[in-house]
Amino acid sequence: MTTATLEVRSNGALNAVQDLGRTGWLAHGVSNAGAMDPQALSMANALAGNEAGCAAIEISLFPFRAQLLADVRLAWTGADSAVTIDGIVHPPWWSVHASAGQTVTIAPPRRGARMYLACGGGIDVPQVLGSRSTDLKGGFGGLDGRGLKRGDQLTTAGQDIGNQRAFGVLPPERQGLFDELDSGIVTLRAIAAAEYDTFTAEAQAAFTQTHYTITSEANRTGYRLDGTPLVLSHRLELLSHGIVPGTVQVPPNGQPIIQLADANTCGGYPKIATVIETDIWRVAQAPVGTRLRFVMVSADTVIQLRRTHARTHQRLAADISRWRQHP
To answer: How many Cα atoms are found within 13 Å in the side-chain-facing hemisphere of 101?
Structure first.
């Protein structure tokens, strides 16, 4: 008989079980879903002693509370939030061995927008189309295809607890983002999209030389921005075509939309740019009201950045693994 590991003690329709998403289904109209901040989820899993793609809880509504029903290694990453276990405060990006009966509370972020809570062994919900992620639009995956609510109980797979020391890590790039959030302006790198050249020279300049503010119309599907309108040089009629997370579409009002984890699989708005994959997490951690600054980069630069990013995170995950296993 499987025993639950934790029970959710707060309501939050947008707090849901997520992993790294379901790939290979966009052509069938199924969104990627998965973590809005995949790097944070992967690092939470590393701190908990899991494989990078294990399912965890993505938390977007705070405070989040859960009571532990079994002993477990916990780890949390993402935003800069205070995490308390039975009233004892722990730092962000941290991992501890916690005991049955204890209560975990995650406060609203001081900086950032989302937290990831991983449990040793990973959250154990059924796979749907190769992923445990919750598709909130489609109503499938995760726990019954919905966000978590008070009273929900989650189980975990078997875990290798390793040593029981508390430890953590804060990648330098995260501190860099926290500093940017303090300033109110977050920089995103992007490459030109298919219709870039159909925008006026003034629009192209405005896209990189002015700031765009995240409006309250921001969710897992995408963020609507507000700033200098981006105008086409001539009228353009497009058939619906495939889009991916990071695509920056421009509807007739000229205000851009960044597609995110639950991005629509197709759309007919012209595209001015695509935020590069290694910067998607920066969008996910930018709250409503944050100003965004876009910087255009080349495809060669994107490839190099992705390789560097992958090497850095592989080394960090390896260091965490060694730390966990040796007292």
So the answer is: 0
Cis omega before residue 256 (within 30°)? no
Measured distance CA(75)–CA(120) in Å, rounded: 8
**Residue 235 near residue 270, CB atoms below 8 Å:** no
Q: Write the CB contacts of 221 (distance below 8 Å, at least 6 apart in sequence).
A: 137, 259, 260, 262, 263, 264
Count of alpha carbons within 13 angstroms of residue 225, beta-carbon side: 25
CA distances from 129 to 24, 37, 51, 133 (A): 9, 21, 19, 10
Residue 19, token pair as written in the block: 């992993």
* Termini Cα distance of the chain: 33
Q: Quick one: how many helices (H) and strands (E) in the chain?
A: 5, 21
Q: According to the model, what pLDDT value does residue 22 have?
A: 95
Reduced to 3 states, what is the DSSP secondary structure of residue 139?
A: coil
Residue 256: per-residue pLDDT: 98
Q: Do the beta carbons of residue 22 and residue 130 sit within 8 Å?
A: yes
Give CA–CA dist 42/244, Å, rounded.
Answer: 21
Quote the Cα angle for 56-58-60, to 5°: 165
pLDDT above 80 for 323: no
Task: Please tell me the distance from the alpha carbon of residue 113 to that of residue 7, in angstroms, as a whole number.
Answer: 23
Query: How far from 260 is each of 7, 167, 170, CA to CA, in Å?
Result: 29, 31, 24
Position 317 scores a pLDDT of 81
Residue-range domains of the chain with CATH: 6-171 (no CATH), 184-296 (2.40.100.10)
Residue-level pLDDT at 321: 78
- DSSP assignment of 12-75, as one string? BTT-EEE-S---S-GGGT----S-SSHHHHHHHHHHHT--TT--EEEE-SSSEEEEESS-EEEE
